Amino acid sequence: ATLFINIISLVGLKMDEVAALNYFIAEQTIKADHNAKFIKEKLGLSVNNLSIEGIFKVQEALVNVYIEKYSKENSHGDV
């Protein structure tokens, strides 16, 4: 994560550019064939026609799962 922050600072990206980049990365990752198939099989959700809000909701759910898993593994609750 530090590498990404360093690159963002080095290039001088503005907040709106970083937000767009974050969205693009999330969308491409969620819609990658292996991930789209996994989400379809496990959740019954087709990700190919999701709106911006839909992509963000999937991302929010994934972050919540990650935080819960990380908190349990580290037992102190900090992320």
Cα-to-Cα separation, first versus last residue = 13 Å
Strand proportion, as a percent range, falls in under 5%
Q: Poorly predicted ranges (pLDDT <50, ≥5 residues)? A: none
- Rounded to an integer in angstroms, the radius of gyration calculated over CA atoms is 15 Å
Number of strand segments: 0
Q: Any overview of this molecule?
A:
This protein has 79 residues and is mostly helical. The chain has one domain (2-74). The chain contains 4 helices and no strands. The chain has helices at 2-11, 15-31, 33-43, 52-74. It is flat.
Identify the notable features of this structure and list them briefly.
flat; mainly alpha; 77% helix; 79 residues
Secondary structure layout plus pairing:
Blueprint: H1 2-11, H2 15-31, H3 33-43, H4 52-74
Helix pairs in contact: 2-4
Summarize the entry for a quick read.
77% of the residues lie in helices and 0% in strands. The chain is mainly alpha-helical and 79 residues long.
